[in-house]
Design brief:
The chain is mostly beta strands. β41 (435-437) and β42 (442-445) form a beta hairpin.
Amino acid sequence: MKTRHILFIITILLLAGYSCKKNGQINPDSNLKLEFSADTILFDTVFASLGSATHELRIYNKHSDDLKISSIRLVRGDSSPYRLNLDGESGTEIYDKIIPAEDSLFSFLRVTINPNDLNTPFVVEDELEFVTNGNTQIVKLLAWGQNANYIVADKVVNIGGVPYPYHIVADSLETTIWTPERPYVVYGYALINSYGTLKIEAGTQVYCHQGGGIFSWSDGQLIIDGTADDPVVIQGDRLEAYYQDIPGQWEQILMMDGRAGADHRISHAIIRNGTIGLNCQSTLKVTECALRIDNTIIENQSSYGLHSILYPVEAKNFVIANCGYGNFWAFGGDYRFVHGTLCNFWSADEHDDNKNAIFVANRAIDANDEVFYYPFHMEMDNCIVYGKQKDEFKGVFGPDADSSYIFDHCLIKSEKYNGDMPGFSHCLFNLDPLFVNLAKPDCHIDSIASPVIGMGNPLYGNEVPYDLDGNSRIGAPDMGAYQYVGN
């Protein structure tokens, strides 16, 4: 009985202690302070007037008693570009928040920056002030603001049942020039109308929002005129570090059939993180222009790097890397590639055995299951076609249209094809080119042991005498876009 009595008393005391702990007591001791997940919240560059992504700040009470935060406020008050949200309450000031013992609160911060007259990025600062038991603690807020030129869709056109929101940036018989002083932020499509021309100067940054891009309508013309020192960069508009390598953030650069003497020209450009890098289609009528590409990198596209339907394309000194459905996809048309590197080490599951670095065909099936054919011709000179699939080149050709392809002095990853077959001249098969980095990827040659060194045809090397980095390849060109220069 005595033992039972003692156990009963212990149980009552434990329950009483638990009850007190559960109810909590606010401790006013001025020695007790909060802790934070960071002492500075740093926002990546934010386009003026658009707002940023949300950043999280966690507030910790690591003491054995509850604490009451008397006030949480942005020091700049209503003039602050930042906004705070805590437990569903938002604004610039929040009062009387309780943090239970050994617990935490989540707060979320956003910033919207008003535009000004500066072309260069500028710093926007504030402080988040916490007052607890008479103690004042500060978390700094820091963002870089950037003014921009905004292209916002104001019309919609439906093509094949698909809506394309757009804003005309170059109307008929008009030439519009985008300059590098401020970036361009595109919501929807920046559309080049028939007989209009858009020129994008060296150093210009173009940021496309989800679902948008650049659209050259029938008989329009796109000219991207970057330089080695100042390339034109086209990418998504999310600038946080998390989005640096996320594909599919925007749609595409779409080019329809063009007029004679108005070739689309893309020089010294970097096109990344979209759905289709370059999509050229001669479907309304037979195009009288071509797409000409030089010194350009197309990378990390969720579908295709270069997609073409019946469109002539010439590309020199280029890289197309890591695309979900294929680096180069073409139905019909005429193509020539010189000193290109097409490498695909796409890490997502979508890159399976049926999705190759190069897929080309002279036949297709429409929505009514009708098969139709168009002639196809492709020539690849001093190129590398490599990736993690068994066959990175796949051709589907029917007998009802002329088709041919020539690989001259190329390295090709393929189990199906070999150098004894027609269409291959002085080619290497299934040898690792030894790229610097496969995941990023970095398609520079990493080692003197690479089989592509000195294996290009000098005739094509003289045609494109400098590699994508500006290094001379005259005399003994390597295959691919980059000349090996040693470590």
